[in-house]
Amino acid sequence: MCSHPFPSATADHGLPHVVAAHPEQGWSLLCDGAI
């Protein structure tokens, strides 16, 4: 996991990046654990 605060949707810097993408299923896992 990254060191981003959870959740980090409002962070101006250090935005989480996608670590697992499943667009065919309609979801992606971000490095901060958010789906």
**Helix segment tally:** 0
How far is the N terminus from the C terminus? 13 Å
**Approximately how much helix is present in the residues?**
under 10%
Radius of gyration (CA) equals: 10 Å
| Structural shape | elongated
Largest sheet: 2 strands, antiparallel
Strand adjacency order, main sheet: 1-2
Plain-language structure description:
With about 35 residues, the chain is mainly beta. The chain has strands at about 20, 25-30. The protein has a two-stranded antiparallel sheet with strand order 1-2. It is elongated and about 30 Å long. The two termini are about 15 Å apart.
What distinguishing features does this structure have?
single chain, 35 residues, mainly beta, two-stranded antiparallel sheet, 2 strands, elongated
Element layout with pairings:
Layout: E1 18-22, E2 27-30
Antiparallel strand pairs: 1-2
What would you say about this model in short?
The chain has 35 residues and is mostly beta strands.
